[in-house]
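Worked example

This section walks through a single chain of length 464. The input is the sequence exactly as stored; nothing has been trimmed or padded.
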Amino acid sequence: MRDLPFAPESKIAIVGAGPAGIHMSYELKKRGFKNVVIYEKSARVGGKTYSQIRDGVNHELGTTGFAMAKESPLERLIFDVFPNPDKYTYKIDNMALSKNALIKRTKRTRKFGTIIKTLKVLFYRQKFNRIYADLVKKGYPFNIDKDDKDTLNLLSISMKSFLLSHNLDLIYRSLKSRFTAYGYGKMESIPAFYGLMLMKENYLSKTNYRIFKKGNDFLWRETIAKFDLDVELGATISGIDYSKYEQHKKVSLKIEKNGNEKWEAFDFAILTTPYTLSQFLPCSVSSVFKDAHSIKYIASLVEMGKRDNSESFYTGEFPAASIDSYDHDVVLAANFGKIREASTDGNKSDSKIFVCFQLNDQKESQLKQNEVTQKLENQIKTLFDRKAGLNQVFKSHTWENYCPSFPMKSIESGVIQHIEAEQGKHGLWYTGSCMSGELVSLVLDYNDHLLNRLSEYHCAKNTH
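Given that input, the structure is written out below as tokens.
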């Protein structure tokens, strides 16, 4: 990766202290930029990562785990912050955990069932690897043309092939007809393209994930501390002035903090949640980001009733209201004590409670907020086969914009390519999960892509 040609003294603002903002600040500082500041409107860092510790076990009310794909920006960051990450994390093989999820499998009784299954796995695995290699050659995930129907079709086929190659037929049948939070569109009706996460790097993949023993937000706090990143908490951006950028090469932000407000000029600004700032953006992208929508989630740390083991706390995550394209109550229920137990060599548990996705489709047209706790308890009693249900909710956290995304029609019309063409104009750059997909690993991948764009942009500017 080429170094950015800006002088080390260049003044850079990053809006948002989530994974996108902290990683971008870290990368810029590594390249010698000394004047980078992150503005975060809340009183905490970590964005979609939010941890709660109970009985010495961290329970995630946000990001469940971090994918450790080899040579990825996320892997490089973690090893840079923690040269010996095994000391601070649990290593999770989510393929192993998925076998213990609440997915009923029918037992094969046919004599040649195992042979047939093995041949099927080998066939689809080879097919997936071949298709995925073709996608990479075409520049997936960042450089695929929306009109390249052949490539878009390959995306659909490759996801199907991956699921079937890992004997996840039931998950495939469950996912294929509904909207998925990890990509745009339905598996069988591509064009799902920009930000579509192949299962190769998703939570069902063979990629080892890491969960931090002190909570996943520990990663972001330690990154800030180790690299002395400048973060201003409680600072809200309430205005952006880019009108003088062409003349003076400066963009100004209106910053509100502790009841005071001021305008401050920067060489450029990186916005990690541009959809929340759409009213202040240039007209060329303002309406585009206004179209971005997200799912409102509630994540709760709950204590179970009478148990048959010592682990009593669970995390439940569910939509706060019925969503037409997202038709299940509990999206995720996890016992992180069991995840920790399963990550060690001495796995002593025979419990079926590990990680459970998409537990129950809801038939009701509406899901009222005051019914959520009762629904959660009923599902725990029924689906977890426990002696008692919910005792109390210890902590609930509401995510207003947990999974921002563009409507399918916008993607089909080329919204991502349009934003890519606008990157850098007016001194503004756009990143974050609405541009890349929900997973932290994807967000950091897009940052890597954007840093290359920054280099190309300023190299071209200096040439002219």
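What to look for: The radius of gyration is 23 Å.
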